[in-house]
Amino acid sequence: MQTTLQMLKTHPSATGIAPENLAAAIAKLYTCAQACTTCADACLGEKELSSLVPCIRANLDCADACLATGAMLSRVTHSPTDLLRSMLGTCVKACHQCAEECAKHASMHEHCRICSEACRSCEKACRDLMG
Amino acid sequence: MQTTLQMLKTHPSATGIAPENLAAAIAKLYTCAQACTTCADACLGEKELSSLVPCIRANLDCADACLATGAMLSRVTHSPTDLLRSMLGTCVKACHQCAEECAKHASMHEHCRICSEACRSCEKACRDLMG
Amino acid sequence: MQTTLQMLKTHPSATGIAPENLAAAIAKLYTCAQACTTCADACLGEKELSSLVPCIRANLDCADACLATGAMLSRVTHSPTDLLRSMLGTCVKACHQCAEECAKHASMHEHCRICSEACRSCEKACRDLMG
Amino acid sequence: MQTTLQMLKTHPSATGIAPENLAAAIAKLYTCAQACTTCADACLGEKELSSLVPCIRANLDCADACLATGAMLSRVTHSPTDLLRSMLGTCVKACHQCAEECAKHASMHEHCRICSEACRSCEKACRDLMG
Fold first, then answer.
1. Residue C51 CB: number of other CB atoms within 10 A?
2. Given a contact as 3+ CB pairs under 8 Å, which chains touch B?
């Protein structure tokens, strides 16, 4: 997050969002995308795999949504647009769905518990940016 | 699109969307993502580059939105969800914004004209899937 | 592929690769990425899921490699670089691995057979571009 | 990186790479992808834009390579494969090229200086994993 914050602060265009808030949200988006990618792979290695299929699908959707949102937010110049707001709203839904799905398996699989928390944290950051 | 259609038809789970419509939309999403990626690079090679900056930014946002939407649609099992509908709505906005921006330069740059058409075609396909 | 070819032909910078060959390879890369994304999801819906885990992992790796390669090739100006050659070589490996893995299940699952063919076709196109 | 490390440690399959080293590399890959995405956008906002075109192109290639590598590394089960080694080698080249290009503008643009450092750090982490 330190590198992201420095990048945002040295960007020539001002953004409507405080760089600290933006950097925090971007960090959570990439962290969540990474956690979801590993959670899908970890689920594929579990014995009761068939019960984890909805979790894997939610993981993959969430990772895609987070990366697209993270990239758009990283192009900071268009902060208050309608498109960005819509992308954030989509990401909120993807994170929410994945957090709920992972939470069902949190007591059995630590990776689902940790991933669920990463999703919730990312969901909140996206909601906050939507204002 | 032929490969995509075959993939969808041999998927074990039925989807709420007709495979032909789904395959057509997916093809347009990847085509649009590709066109936007090349359009951004082509704009970077033009002489009056500074006037094309908003076009390049719209290209990059649109490519990201199209790839995320294309991936979600390719995981066909969750067709009628709220998340997918939201992602399609976001992609409609990204395509619309990029089509408008490219259209401003269509008379001067053929790549902007072609990209604008790819965006409009993709925007329509996403709208149609939203029902 | 028609849109891609038009985009490449109207790009202001010449490329070291004939646009027809480049467009054909790019089309195969996006088609392969899409097929792998659907094949992973289709495998997740099959009954003998546990035997398909290596296939799903190969699908996900291959989709990521194809999209990164497709994006780099779509920024046509840097065609003959060392980086592009290396990316193509990586993509050849990803496609080869996924084609082999899918082929093991081709007699049981049509989606694996079709995906395997898409991977082989993409592998060949990448090899051809490497020269 | 804390979340990534926890995810890797709770993954059911052992990996050939120490989780601490893997988590550090993954963190650098996503950080570098993010920095490159913002650097490209920041360059687009600078006055002497035409001199920054090679930097923007290197940024975009590097971001794509880092995300593909980060995703493959996040699917930790296949650590010592030939494919992963090849992807890491490609990413080393992408990071190296972007670091060199950004370094040319580091004295004039802080974002290029910071991005160059993120690329060098990521290049080193990928080299170490190949080791």
1. 13
2. A, C, D
Q: Which residues of C touch B (CB under 8 A)?
A: 3-4, 6-8, 10-13, 26, 30-31, 33-35, 37-42, 44-46, 63, 67, 70-71, 74-77, 109-111, 114-115, 117-118
- Nearest by CB: B37 against C38, C46, C71: C71
Q: At what angle do helices B19-44 and B53-74 cross, to 10 degrees?
A: 150
pTM: 0.97
Q: What is the pLDDT of residues A117-130, one digit of tens each?
A: 999 999 999 999 99
Q: Contact, A59 vs A72, CB < 8 A?
A: no
User: pLDDT tens for residues C25-44?
Assistant: 999 999 999 999 999 999 99
- Quickly count helices (H) and strands (E) in chain C: 5, 0
Inter-chain contact D87–C77, Cβ cutoff 8 Å?
no
Is C63 within 8 Å of A40 (Cβ atoms)? no
What CA–CA distance (Å, rounded) separates A67 from A95? Answer: 12
What pLDDT score was predicted for residue B15? 74
Q: What is the mean pLDDT of each run of 10 residues along chain D (131 residues)?
A: 93 85 96 98 95 97 98 80 94 97 97 98 96 79
Model ipTM value = 0.95
Write the CB contacts of A116 (distance below 8 Å, at least 6 apart in sequence): A98, A99, A102, A103, A106
Mapping DSSP to helix (H, G, I), strand (E, B) and coil, where does residue B12 land?
A: coil
CATH class of residue range A16-130: mainly alpha
pLDDT (mean) for A66-75: 97
Instruction: Indicate the DSSP class of residue C10.
Output: T
